[in-house]
Design goal:
The chain is an alpha/beta fold and about 400 residues long. It has 17 helices and eight strands. An eight-stranded parallel β-sheet has the order 7-6-5-4-3-2-1-8. Helix 12 (about 285-295) links the parallel strand 6 and strand 7 (about 300-305).
Length: about 400
């Protein structure tokens, strides 16, 4: 109707051109719509081509024990299609060894799979650093928080990304967005930017953006907040008796900021929040992950559990059952850092849950599509790296340490 009114009084030639213009616009619209169709969306096409074993593999990230790939780890990557690995201090002896190890992981994966593998590391700086001994450590997050400098926090994010990228990683498990509000907290402490929610939110997001700027995936953690706990979840299950209203006013503030600023990946802690879910800890809770994080806070990115072999889980649950429960709750990636039996049990339990209908293929597809889109967004590749400039890495650390003096 509007088009007719606009075109009244035009010449035949003009009308002819207008018709073609409108038809062209309609064609463009149809093309755009068709691109949204699963058949032409490369991610959906890839998802449709994957076997259920490949899909389940993408939902798993494992640690391993040695400083090189042994037959057991090779088998997990090749036969179980594992979508990601995480390295710890025990895996790293020197700069050249670390670079050779990440290259070996990529080489094995690329020979057998056409989806690049996540290679992650806990590189926060300060207390939690996995870098080889030749690398000068970055300061603790609390020191950055005390500076209250967004520019410095961004610079730290860049430095973290540059060092992990140099060694072949594509993901770092930071920034820490917990608010260190409990002085008796045994696990967060200096790892937090401080006890002030605004400072934690402001500087944590700047560090996240600094990491993203170098095309490394940051993992925001430990949702919904591990700051007001007096139990180390590596050893037992912390209980936080705060109401949802209190959480929204305090613990959730930095995480909501991260969601609003396009956080890609969120790690969920093993914390029992009786006011939200009296039965299951946050990492296994649909109330926390689906209802609060996804629906309440509008997070559409990837959700990963904290390590499922931590005491909070294995002292209270069978790890296979917990892995299934974690997926039902809304997690996309199950992190299993230690123990061959634990890894095998996670794979088998999730596979059996699919076979008996406990977990539907639609539910699996939902997570795998998020994972594939994240890998695509960051243009992940299994291409090998050989160049390593230790002086450049250490120079960035020295600049940041000088800025804090």
């Amino acid at each position: 109707m509007i088009l007719i009114m606009i075109f009244v009084g035009c010449s035949k030639a003009s009308n002819h051109n207008i018709v073609h213009a409108v038809q062209g616009a309609e064609y463009e619209m149809e093309t755009e719509v068709s691109l949204l169709d699963g058949a032409t969306d490369p991610i959906k096409a890839k998802l449709d081509s994957m076997s259920i074993a490949e899909k389940i593999g993408q939902m798993l990230m494992f640690g391993f024990d040695d400083s090189k790939i042994n037959e057991e780890t090779r088998k997990l990557i090749v036969d179980n299609h594992i979508g990601g690995v995480i390295l710890f201090k025990k895996n790293i002896t020197s700069s050249q060894q670390l670079l050779a190890l990440t290259n070996q992981i990529k080489e094995i994966n690329s020979k057998h799979h056409n989806t690049p593998i996540f290679i992650a590391v806990d590189e926060e700086g300060g207390l939690i650093s996995r870098m080889p001994p030749e690398i000068i450590n970055l300061p603790d997050s609390v020191d950055i928080g005390n500076s209250n400098s967004p520019a410095l926090a961004y610079q730290v994010g860049e430095a973290i990304a540059e060092r992990v990228d140099s060694f072949g990683f594509n993901m770092t498990m930071t920034p820490v967005l917990d608010i260190n509000s409990n002085p008796a907290n045994p696990v967060i402490g200096k790892r937090a930017f401080g006890a002030n929610r605004e400072i934690v939110a402001k500087l944590g997001i700047e560090e996240m953006k600094g990491i993203q700027s170098k095309s490394i995936i940051p993992v925001v953690k430990h949702f919904p907040g591990h700051g007001d706990t007096d139990v180390d979840s590596h050893l037992g299950l912390p209980v936080v008796n705060h109401s949802l209203e209190r959480l929204r006013q305090m613990e959730l503030v930095p995480f909501q900021h991260a969601v609003n600023q396009q956080a890609d990946l969120m790690m969920v802690a093993h914390i029992l929040l009786p006011e939200i879910d009296i039965e299951f800890p946050s990492s296994l809770s649909k109330n926390v992950i689906t209802n609060l994080l996804r629906e309440g806070m509008n997070f559409n990115g990837v959700v990963i559990t904290d390590d499922m072999t931590m005491g909070a889980i294995i002292e209270n649950y069978d790890i296979g059952e917990a892995s299934v429960r974690a997926i039902q709750a809304g997690n996309d990636i199950i992190l299993v850092c230690h123990g061959t039996e634990n890894k095998v049990k996670a794979v088998n339990s999730i596979t059996n849950a699919f076979k008996d209908g406990t977990i539907s293929e639609d539910r699996i597809n939902e997570s795998v599509e998020r994972i594939l889109r994240l890998k695509d967004k960051y243009n992940l590749s299994d291409s090998l790296q050989y160049d390593l400039d230790l002086n450049k890495i250490n120079q960035s650390s020295e600049e940041i340490l000088r800025a804090l003096q």
